[in-house]
Amino acid sequence: MVGVDDTVPFLASGSPEAPASGGDMDQSPHRVRIIDGTLACLARHGTAKTTVDDIARESGVSRATVYRAFPGGRDEILGAVVDTEMARLFSALGVRLGNAADLTTALVGGIIEASTRLRDHAALHFLVEHEPGIILGHLAFDESDRLLVTASKFTAPFLARWMSPDEAERVAEWATRIVLSYAVSPSSRLDLCNEADATRLVATFMLPGIRALQSFASGPIDITPYSTYTAAPKPDTRPTHRQLARGTPT
Amino acid sequence: MVDARQRIVEASYACVARRGMAKTTVEDVAREAGLSRATVYRTFPGGRDELIDATVSWAVFDFFAKLYDRIQGASSLEEVMERGISFAYRSILDHEVLQRVMQTEPDKLLPALTVESNRIRGGIADVLAPYLMDRGLVAGVDPGEAADFLARMVLSYISAPGRWDLEDPEQVARLVRFELLAGVVVPGVSR
């Protein structure tokens, strides 16, 4: 199963170094060419219909060259494609975050950058349309947790300019959730590729939450959790199936 | 009296619980429901695919109906969210059929779950909306947008808690009252 791998040094260390290295580095010009060729195939036909022959043809190399660069064949290539695209995304994010002069600009810029790249990614788009099981398989439950950890480990150091490292990791995780939610289930009222909308979201929902967490961390505030209470039972006003699953577009 | 459709869906769920999605056939479901294959196909002209979608849909509804029961009587927005998140998170972990299908056949389950979660998000937002209005919104916050945002976040956290320990009531309280609600509701006394 392909996915983000903690052993990829670039992603695990969370620092903006050169893109993932490993394997046959003397094949590197072929590697990148083959990966980009594969992306072009995926954008047109998805994974099911993309063979090593297609990849070789699209990349302008021989089958032998492909197998030399990726002895594990198609599966290894697809894994490398995911790693490379993740590295490219994080690299672009790093630039955007590194250039930000303040927290708002960092959050807004990072959210727009990630959302736009996800929206415009041709191969991803094809897969979401025609092979959703593959994509969603990497977004469910445990896989989502891993993705959140990876993304927040990478972006947190940039945010730590304005808050403690622990807070920065929580905020980075939160921003990643937001990007993922609106990417998987777009909203008609909020487009995170749009600067005005992204700014509104950050200003309205994120910044107050960040400040509140900071003031909580810095002083004792009594919060007794409600979930330790048990309430008296009330009349059953259980919603009907129709009410609960309204499918109202937002 | 339970109608045929409901009977078939519940039978389908029982089959999936026993044998997984891939091995559940229309024949199995018909037998389990005590109905003819013809009746099943009449009720679900789209065949097995439509039936599986309906089964997922029903299982999600059932999950949220139980959740709704659990949050009944919550007297504030904080309370409804804290109870809801805690209970939903625990229920997902404890949901044997969900966990098993996720292990063995996630690529069949997940597209259907994603479609359902879009619908459920609306339902969650509808539950939160009156509590939001009651609590009082920060000036300029659009109630529909706030309800949708909170519903998205609730779904996100219960399916992947990340750094948060959602079995710790204090962490859930912190998540709800500070991270999620600080920008949305007027600070001060909560009931």
Rg of chain B computed from alpha carbons, rounded to a whole number of angstroms: 19 Å
Described by the principal axes of the CA atoms, the overall outline of chain A is elongated
Our estimate of the beta-strand percent of chain A is: under 5%
Give the integer mean of the pLDDT values of chain A: 81
Q: What is the N-to-C succession of helices and strands of chain A? A: HHHHHHHHHHHH
Distance between the termini of chain B: 42 Å
**Rg over C-alpha atoms of chain A, rounded to the nearest angstrom:** 22 Å
Main beta sheet of chain A, described? none
| Overall average residue pLDDT of chain B | 90
Global outline of chain B: elongated
> Counting H and I runs of at least 4 residues, what is the number of helices of chain A?
12
Tell me the number of helical segments of chain B per DSSP (H or I, 4 or more residues long).
Answer: 9
Q: Could you name the ranges of chain A where pLDDT drops below 50 across 5 or more consecutive residues? A: 1-26, 229-236
Number of strands of chain A: 0
The amount of beta strand of chain B, in percent, is under 5%
CATH class of the domain at 56-180 in chain B: Mainly Alpha
How far apart lie the N and C ends of chain A? 33 Å
Helical content of chain B stands at: over 70%
Low-confidence runs of at least 5 consecutive residues of chain B:
none
